[in-house]
Amino acid sequence: MGKDIEEKKQIEQQDEAVQEPPKAKRRFLPKPIRAGLIWGGSAILAIGAGFASGFLYHKLTDNPQIIEIDAATLQIDQDALMERYQKAKDYEELEPWEVANIGLIKFARTENHRSTAKGEAVAMGLVTQHIRSAAIRNGDQYFEESLSKSEGGLDIQTGWRMYEDEQQVSTLYPSKEKTISSDASKASWDESKKETFEDPEAFKATVGYTISGHLSNYNITEYTYVKEGDDAPSGVPTSLQKTDVGYLLELELDVNLACEDYKVQMKHTSDLYGYPVFSFSHLQMVFDQELNLLEMTSHEKYKAAISPVISSEVEGTITTTYESDGIFPIPGLKDNVPYAN
Fold first, then answer.
1. Which of 229, 216, 226 is CA-nearest to residue 257?
2. 21 lies in a domain?
3. For residue 81, how many other CB atoms are within 10 A of its CB?
4. Pick from 88, 95, 142, 81: which is nearest to 115 by CA?
5. 23: phi > 0 → left, psi -120 to 50 → alpha, else beta; which?
6. Contact at 8 Å (CB) between 143 and 163?
7. Segments in the chain below pLDDT 70
8. pLDDT by residue (tens digit) across 226-276?
9. Crossing angle for the helix pair 78-87 and 96-108, to the nearest 10 degrees
10. Residue 50 and residue 117: Cα distance in Å, rounded?
11. What distance in Å separates the CA atoms of residue 224 and residue 253, rounded to the nearest whole number?
C-alpha cells in the first residue's frame, strides 16, 4: 500500500514538471448590443444623425482589422473650449473644429432641447432609404429614436428607441414586420421587446456610451478634419464665413479619424459584414450670431458590405434641425415624434 502511494506521488510530480505553461490570453474588444431590427435583408443604407453612439476609440481598416490609436486625438476639453469661446472678440478667429464643437456643446448643455433629422440614402443609384431620427432632453430624461424605410423593390426597415434617466436605460424595437411608415416618420413599439439596464453606467459598460454623454456621431477635433485650403474629397473645402443669420461652417472630415465611432455604430446597428469604408464625409453647419447651432447637413459616401462578396456604394444626405427654446416632452410608447414634413 505504502509503495503504491509513493509511486502515485512520483507520477503526479512528473506530470507537473512537464505541464505546458498557460497560453497567453487573447484580448477581445467588447461588442455593443445590436440596436435595431432588420427586415428583408441587411440595412446597408442606414446612416445616423444628431446625437449618437460613441464606442471604443480605434482605427478600422478594410480587413476589417482593428488597430488602437491614441484616444487623445479624439478628445476635447469642453470647459477649456467654452472659456476660449467666451473670451473671443471675433468668432471668425476660432478654428473650424472649435466652432463646430462650441455649437454642439451649447446645445447639449441646455436643460430642454430637441433635434430632429430627415434624409435619404441611395445605394447603387437604385434603392432609396428614407431616414428619420430624433434626440430629446427634458431635464434629467433623455430620448433617442432612429427609423428608416426603403423603397425601390427592397423591403428594408430598421428602428429603435432608447430612453435614459438617472436610474436606468431602456431600448425598444418595432412591434412586428412592416410597422414603420413609408416616410419613416412613425412606428409601432412593442414593450415586450424592451431591454432594460439598471443604470446608465451599466448601459455604458455594455454599449460604450450613454445617451446623455455624447455630442455627435463624429469625433471632431483639431486632428480629425481636412484643413482650410486642402483638397476636400467631397468637393466642398472646409471654410467658415459670416452670414446675415450668423455663421456658416463647411467642415470636411478626415474619414480615417472623425468617423471611427460612427463606423462601429453603423456596423452593429445595420447588420453589416464589415465596417463601412468612407469616400468622404462632409458637414455643413448653420449657427446664429452667438454660435448657437441651428442646423446641420451631413453628406456622405461610403461602401457597405453585407457579405464577404457583396457590397454597395451608398450616398446619403441628412439634415438635422436643433431646437432649444421650449419644453419638449419625452414621447410615450404610443406617441410619435413630431417630425416636420
1. 226
2. no
3. 16
4. 142
5. beta
6. yes
7. 1-71, 152-154, 175-178, 204-209, 268-271
8. 999 999 999 999 999 999 999 999 999 999 888 877 887 777 666 677 888
9. 110
10. 7
11. 6
3-state secondary structure the chain: CHHHHHHHHHHHHHHHHCCCCCCCCCCCCCCCCCCCCCECCCCCCCCCCCCCCCCCCEEECCCCCEEECCHHHHCCCHHHHHHHHHHCCCHHHCCHHHHHHHHHHHHHCCCEEEEEEEEEEEECCCEEEEEEEEEEEECCEEEEEEEEEEECCCCCEEEEEEEECCCCEEEEEECCCCCCCCCCCCCCEEEEEEEEECCHHHHHHHHCCCHHHCCCCCCCCCCCECCCCCCCCCCCCCEEEECCCEEEEEEEECCCCCCHHHHHHHHHHCCCCCCCEEEEEEEEEEEECCCCEEEEEEEEEEEEECCCCCEEEEEEEEEEEEECCCCCCCCCCCCCCCCCC
- Which tens digit of pLDDT belongs to each residue from 303-337? 988 778 788 899 999 999 999 999 999 998 889 99
The length of the chain, given as a count of residues: 341
Is residue 329 one of the residues assigned to a domain? Answer: no
Residue 261 belongs to domain spanning: 34-323
Whether the pTM exceeds 0.85: the reply is no
Query: What is d(CA 34, CA 41) in angstroms, rounded to the nearest whole number?
Result: 15
User: Cell match 483638397: residue?
Assistant: 231
Closest by Cα among 337, 308, 335, 314 to 47: 314
Which of 130, 184, 128, 126 shows the shortest CA–CA distance to 160?
184
Return the pLDDT at 110. Answer: 95
Question: To 5 degrees, how large is the angle CA 160–CA 316–CA 184?
Answer: 35
Residue 209 lies in a domain: yes
Helices (H), the chain: 2-17, 78-87, 96-108, 200-207, 260-269
> Alpha-carbon distance 4 to 308, whole Å?
60
The tally of domains found in the chain comes to 1
Domain-located, residue 270: yes
